[in-house]
Amino acid sequence: MTAVAAEHLVGSVEPRVCVYPRAGRSAGRMAVDLARRAGLRLDPWQCLVLERALGVEPDGRWSAFEAGLIVARQNGKSAIFEARMLAGLFLFGEELILYSAHEFKTAGEIFRRVLALIDGTPDLRKRVKAVARSKGEEGIELLPTRQCPRGQRLRFVARSTNSGRGFSGDCVFMDECQNLPDASVDAMMPTLLARPNAQLWYGGSAPDKDLAPCEQITRVRNRALAGGEAAERLAYFEWSAELCSDLCGPDCAEHDDPADPKVWAKTNPALGSGRVTVEGIAKMYASMSPRGFARELLSVGNYPSQTGGWDVISEAAWGAVADEASAPLDPVAFAVEVAPDRQAAAIAVVGLREDGLLHAEIPPNDYRPGTSWVPARLAALVKRWRPCVVAISPAGPTGSLEPDIEDALDDLDDDVRVKLTLVKGRDAGAACGGLYDAIVRPPDAPQDWAPSLRVRPHPALTAAVAGARKRQVGDAWVWDRRGSSVDPSPLIAVTVARWAFVTRPREEEEPVEPWAVFG
Length: 519
What we know:
Blueprint: H1 3-7, E1 17-19, E2 25-26, H2 28-37, H3 44-53, E3 55-56, E4 66-70, H4 77-90, E5 96-101, H5 104-119, H6 122-125, E6 128-132, E7 139-142, E8 153-158, E9 171-175, H7 182-188, E10 199-204, H8 215-226, E11 234-238, H9 261-267, H10 278-287, H11 290-296, H12 315-321, E12 332-338, E13 344-352, E14 358-361, E15 367-369, H13 374-385, E16 389-392, H14 402-410, E17 420-422, H15 426-439, E18 453-455, H16 459-466, E19 470-473, E20 476-479, H17 489-502
Parallel strand pairs: 4-10, 4-11, 5-8, 5-9, 9-10, 12-16, 14-18, 16-17
Antiparallel strand pairs: 1-11, 2-3, 6-7, 7-8, 12-13, 13-14, 13-15, 19-20
């Protein structure tokens, strides 16, 4: 695309994901017109959201109980909320409107903007009874009317496990929903229970489960994608790209190119409005990490699994490296890992294949109940196969076996004895990242990228990958032993064995003969 053509791109009004209940009429246009009177001129895409989310049933109820919005940063999501707040106060007769955000400074900024709109509009300003400006108590209260004898209120509350307790809200906003813990939702949601015509709004940029809790917006999004009864009273709008997965081939033309300005227009509906420009996004593309750019500017989220696991390594990516016929050459590395509850242990083997790829497996007889069998079994394997490395991660439950394993290895003859390698400290994060990179296609991978590992399937190993969770340690992450829904020991054993093999001293001879099926 030429520079001239790119300069004239405008953002897409229609979102890629758009679900909303059809209704005979909408109050959205009323909200748009009131916002314009107050000096808030909305873009076409912002008007679309309000018109579709504010459908009205024949009985006067909102057709959508929930409205969700995922859009790239700086596009103007907050203006939609501001227009909806004004309409709730001055048109819809909502007695209490509650707004919360992950950071209270965001709530404070929205409060100041809404107040400025009201103060700048005489017809609205004269209906204000009081304004609370104390930090943490910000709010606007209107004079009583026949419709609302107690007056109407707009409150800005801090998000916490107590948010909204003691209130009954007609409209609740949960902004910055990319960081929205379940506990905050559980505290706010019941405020709507006693109201006959309540509405709940979510808004934010694309979430990343590795950065912040985002289960609630993920559930909302999944209902929108499922459609049907699951989305019966849901309005959901998402301007997002569809990027290649780790299984796409080098010539894939079915997915969006993150470097294409036409894709930027698809995911930034405000492009061309003056707030967002092609030049500005190009600067972000050149400076940001591929993952960060995809999340913040293309609304490509890293959503937690809601369907039985595979949160870290996808089922498709794991299936792509499975190989029943895979076998390593000699020499290999062994690693041991004990289950967190010490009810089982696993021994993994990793080595090079004839084609130069790495091979990994949990041998059929080496994932067993208990731990007492490990030292003797490991010594027998070392005596038979003479590995280049034997390793454990001593910081976890396997550390208690370190003396017994060392004793078992010391009892071997000098010509087969091998020193136990301890993977700890920064190496633990590097080991986890190395295994992940060997399986999962990175977003900035060249077209000819392919996984560098093959795995002989084992039920316990597959279950461990499906149930695996991450735990952040500084700037790196490791497998979360406590957070995993299943025994992670087979996965951790493979992770440690791979790291020990690829970082082994290189005095050994090159692999010379293939193994038989390991047993």
